[in-house]
Amino acid sequence: VFLSQGTPASLVRYRVDEDQSPYSGSIFDVEKGSGRVITRVNLNEQPSVTFKLVVIAFDDGEPVKENRTLVEITVLQPSRIPIFTQEEYR
To answer: GO cellular component terms (predicted)?
Structure first.
Protein backbone atom coordinates (compact mmCIF):
# COMPACT_ATOMS: atom_id res chain seq x y z
CA VAL A 1 0.00 0.00 0.00
CA PHE A 2 1.43 3.36 -1.00
CA LEU A 3 0.86 6.15 1.46
CA SER A 4 1.42 9.74 0.49
CA GLN A 5 3.88 11.74 2.50
CA GLY A 6 2.44 13.38 5.58
CA THR A 7 -0.23 10.84 6.50
CA PRO A 8 -0.21 9.60 10.11
CA ALA A 9 0.71 6.09 8.96
CA SER A 10 3.76 7.35 7.06
CA LEU A 11 5.42 8.86 10.14
CA VAL A 12 7.46 6.19 11.93
CA ARG A 13 8.70 6.91 15.42
CA TYR A 14 10.74 4.88 17.88
CA ARG A 15 10.88 4.18 21.59
CA VAL A 16 12.41 1.72 24.05
CA ASP A 17 10.16 -1.09 25.28
CA GLU A 18 10.63 -0.38 28.98
CA ASP A 19 8.82 -3.59 29.99
CA GLN A 20 11.18 -5.79 27.98
CA SER A 21 14.35 -3.77 28.71
CA PRO A 22 14.02 -2.13 32.13
CA TYR A 23 17.75 -2.13 32.96
CA SER A 24 19.08 -1.36 29.48
CA GLY A 25 16.30 1.18 29.04
CA SER A 26 17.73 3.10 31.98
CA ILE A 27 21.16 3.19 30.30
CA PHE A 28 20.14 3.77 26.66
CA ASP A 29 17.47 5.77 24.94
CA VAL A 30 16.19 5.95 21.37
CA GLU A 31 15.69 9.22 19.54
CA LYS A 32 12.00 9.34 18.76
CA GLY A 33 12.31 10.64 15.20
CA SER A 34 15.44 8.90 13.93
CA GLY A 35 15.65 5.65 15.89
CA ARG A 36 19.24 6.44 16.82
CA VAL A 37 20.31 4.68 20.03
CA ILE A 38 22.03 7.02 22.48
CA THR A 39 23.53 6.55 25.93
CA ARG A 40 22.10 8.14 29.06
CA VAL A 41 25.16 7.38 31.20
CA ASN A 42 28.93 7.19 30.86
CA LEU A 43 29.86 3.65 29.79
CA ASN A 44 33.56 3.93 30.68
CA GLU A 45 32.98 1.79 33.75
CA GLN A 46 31.19 -0.99 31.85
CA PRO A 47 33.87 -2.78 29.74
CA SER A 48 33.04 -6.10 28.06
CA VAL A 49 29.34 -5.95 28.87
CA THR A 50 26.48 -6.68 26.46
CA PHE A 51 23.20 -4.86 26.84
CA LYS A 52 19.93 -5.98 25.26
CA LEU A 53 17.47 -3.30 24.30
CA VAL A 54 14.05 -3.88 22.70
CA VAL A 55 13.14 -1.00 20.37
CA ILE A 56 9.61 -0.39 19.10
CA ALA A 57 8.91 1.32 15.76
CA PHE A 58 5.35 2.64 15.51
CA ASP A 59 3.15 4.93 13.45
CA ASP A 60 0.06 7.05 14.07
CA GLY A 61 -2.16 5.17 11.63
CA GLU A 62 -5.61 3.90 12.48
CA PRO A 63 -5.06 1.33 13.82
CA VAL A 64 -1.53 1.99 15.06
CA LYS A 65 0.99 -0.46 13.62
CA GLU A 66 4.18 -1.32 15.44
CA ASN A 67 7.07 -3.72 15.31
CA ARG A 68 9.79 -4.62 17.82
CA THR A 69 13.40 -5.59 17.38
CA LEU A 70 16.15 -6.61 19.74
CA VAL A 71 19.26 -4.43 19.69
CA GLU A 72 22.38 -5.85 21.34
CA ILE A 73 25.05 -3.37 22.36
CA THR A 74 28.44 -4.63 23.48
CA VAL A 75 30.86 -2.27 25.20
CA LEU A 76 34.30 -3.51 24.13
CA GLN A 77 36.73 -0.78 25.03
CA PRO A 78 35.59 2.20 27.05
CA SER A 79 36.69 5.66 25.93
CA ARG A 80 37.24 4.54 22.34
CA ILE A 81 35.14 5.80 19.47
CA PRO A 82 33.98 2.90 17.27
CA ILE A 83 34.89 3.01 13.60
CA PHE A 84 32.80 1.01 11.16
CA THR A 85 33.85 0.07 7.65
CA GLN A 86 31.46 0.19 4.71
CA GLU A 87 31.56 -3.63 4.65
CA GLU A 88 29.94 -3.72 8.12
CA TYR A 89 26.89 -1.80 6.79
CA ARG A 90 25.72 -4.48 4.36
So the answer is: membrane
